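Last lecture ended with a question: if I hand you only a sequence, what can you say about the shape of the protein? Today we answer it with a concrete record. The protein is Ribonuclease P protein component. Below, first the input exactly as provided, then the predicted structure, then a couple of comments.
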Amino acid sequence: MRATFTPAARLHRPSEFALALQGKRVARGAMLVLNTPREATTNEHGARLGLIIAKRHAAQAVTRNAIKRVIREAFRLKRQHLPPKDFVFRLHSKVAPASLTELKKQVRAEVDTLLERAARC
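The predicted structure:
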């Protein structure tokens, strides 16, 4: 399997996001929540990723974009070990003021933990 993050590995339609958000919450961390649909629908392309990073929780675009980049990279590396489902990461709390380097480390640690939980279920 290639290590790129193709458009087939992303959620695109609002209906796809809605199914995952109405489904079950797989894991919750300090900043992020990971949801997946309740039905056991399998994708022929493998696991797919959706991101909801609200402006009210991360006011600066630089912060939002850094969070998205870190989540995409972690998902890309762990995608082979995940079940073929849709996964939606949602930022649920305000981001504490910190440098971008510290923020990226915090987000990466949390995303890795959430993805390990998702791989087990």
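Comments.
1. The chain is about 40% helix and 15% strand.
2. The longest strand covers residues 86-91.
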